[in-house]
Amino acid sequence: MTSRTLALEAFEADPRVVEAKASLLATLREHRARLVGPKPAEPGRSLAYRDALDRFAEVRGGGLFYPYLGSGFGSGALVELADGSVKLDMICGIGVHYFGHGDPELSEHLIDAALQDTVMQGNLQQTAASLELSASFLALANDRGAALDHCFLTTSGAMANENALKLAFHRHAPADRVLAFAGAFAGRSIALSQVTDNPAYRVGLPTALAVDFVPFYDASDPAGSLERTLSALRGHLDRHPGRHAAMILELVQGEGGYYPGDRRFFEAIGSLLREREVAIVFDEVQTFGRTLAPYAFQHFGLDAFADIVTVGKASQVCATLFTDAYRPGPGLISQTFTGATASIAAAQYVVERFARGDLFGEAGRVAQVSRRFTDGFSELEKAHPDWLRGPFGLGAMLAFTPFDGSRASTRRLLDELFARGVVAFSTGGRVSRVRFLPPVGVIRDEDVDRVLEILEASLEAVGAAMAADSGG
């Protein structure tokens, strides 16, 4: 029997649709060429822009970190704001915009998705694209030896981590405690604010989850660090036998200050957790795509320890991946929204690009971008050791400590960078750092060099202002 063409297939193949898409993408490329570098705001737009920022602050109940309202247009690492200014985006929505702004290849997938019948997909009604994406996440995760069987899509990294905890508690009931590293960040929901090791994020909130913290890896004392962490971990496990359902492991601490761990350190922890039958959850919401392998657990060679893995940010759609041992009962994890149709299409593009092979490994683009930035940071430190210390981080998670490492000096530098055309952000607790999460998939070497030039000028300006303030 001859199969009949689906209405969607006929629509997408219609010459009018094909021609319209080609025209749109050609026009996009033409207009992207107008953005050639950072530029200041247009004076005639300043008053209206400031009014919009004030109204937004009132509507949302709090001001924005930066006076940043995008126009909705950009080109690679360059983003245009509604005041007419153009910035080099080195934070990318805290790692979300891996392929920058207005990428034509990505846009082609978004156009297709925008023309489909629904905006959102969810638990009750999904398209075949959700199946394809879920299978792609798993194939990429299992490429080096992990044995993850299932993938549940969701709309945020926090929800991916919430689902991970649900799976772990369900499997290890009646366990009611969680383990995490000191300095951890897992999200801002009521439960995850307990795992996030920052008291400021728990002000006024009830204690919803019992969490025990152990020290993170200390690169200055690897052997002692491992001994202290294992001792603390055994102490918690012995004090509450059978009560820990999971340990959430950030393999590179994100909000904690961009501290990477070590394979031997993680292997020892993983072995002890296996022995005590505690679920190992790799939190890859920020690290996905930013080390020298698609997943950070692959970078560190920890594939055999992957019980549950959460991904987000660069992936556009977030997800919880898990082995069959953690397969839930009916109704345990279920959501009205698992992602926008456009987000699912974008995620499929991202995962396919990650699988292509040009981004990862010692010669991949992540490593190239990382080396160019870290070499630049190192040169600045050699020339001006009082301006910055670093680099810190791993791969395309880049950071440095400016001046005295105080929150005030870091914020001052961030504001100066923004004014000169670079968008960055802070990280860290006791020591505050500037962090970059550049758009690895599209950033050019000349973009990196321009950012470093602006960074040097900004450090000089802030350093001079701080010296004047102190009477120096």
Kindly, what is the distance between the CA atoms of the first and last residues, rounded to a whole number of angstroms? 87 Å
Outline, from the CA principal axes? globular
Number of helices: 15
Note the main sheet.
7 strands, mixed
Structural class: alpha/beta
**Strand segment tally:** 19
Short description:
With 472 residues, the chain is an alpha/beta fold. It contains 15 helices and 19 strands. It has helices at 7-13, 15-32, 46-60, 92-95, 104-114, 128-141, 157-171, 192-195, 222-239, 263-275, 296-299, 341-356, 365-383, 407-420, 445-469; strands at residues 70-75, 78-81, 86-89, 120-121, 150-154, 177-181, 210-214, 244-249, 252-253, 259-260, 279-284, 308-311, 318-322, 339-340, 388-394, 397-402, 422-423, 425-427, 433-436.
List its traits.
472 residues; alpha/beta; seven-stranded mixed β-sheet; four-stranded mixed β-sheet; 15 helices; 19 strands; globular
Please describe the topology of this protein:
Layout: H1 7-13, H2 15-32, H3 46-60, E1 70-75, E2 78-81, E3 86-89, H4 92-95, H5 104-114, E4 120-121, H6 128-141, E5 150-154, H7 157-171, E6 177-181, H8 192-195, E7 210-214, H9 222-239, E8 244-249, E9 252-253, E10 259-260, H10 263-275, E11 279-284, H11 296-299, E12 308-311, E13 318-322, E14 339-340, H12 341-356, H13 365-383, E15 388-394, E16 397-402, H14 407-420, E17 422-423, E18 425-427, E19 433-436, H15 445-469
Parallel strand pairs: 3-17, 6-7, 6-8, 8-11, 11-12
Antiparallel strand pairs: 1-2, 2-3, 4-14, 5-13, 9-10, 12-13, 15-16, 16-19, 18-19
Helix pairs in contact: 2-5, 5-12, 6-12, 9-10, 13-15, 14-15
